[in-house]
Amino acid sequence: KNSKKEMLLILTCDLEHNSFQCKWNSKRISDYVKVSHLEKDVTNFFESSKMDVLILQYQHKTNDLTQFFQIKCILESAHSLYWNKSNNETPANEKLVVLIVHNVMGQKDPFPIIFSQKWKLAFVDSLTSRSSIDLKDLTMSDQTAMIYQYPSFEQ
């Protein structure tokens, strides 16, 4: 299994934090006014030789998963185009796409676990961990190993 051709979906019950957004240079889906703006950012990411990680944060609020599937489709399409440009040559840069889904604790309709071949799934209780999390490690490691590697989280 070639993990570099996967994307990372992180489920968390942690809130969206500005400090996390600044530290990891992530973007909130809610900040996009139009779908075309998200599509443009995703396209620019895959066309750029300077960027290797795209982190998007999505706040799950209702039982309607339409927006989530739209985001997922945009990311998967761009990701596939990037890796399938040429059957014989490997892209110059490895690209890591991370979609963080914030699930509100006690929510009536929590985010369902959706398995997909393109996505590596991880649950991170707190994104404001005292020890830094290497996102590339999450794509390549066994989830059980990750629990022991990053044991200390802020309360």
Automatic annotation (TrEMBL):
This is Uncharacterized protein. It comes from Reticulomyxa filosa. The lineage of its organism: Eukaryota, Sar, Rhizaria, Retaria, Foraminifera.
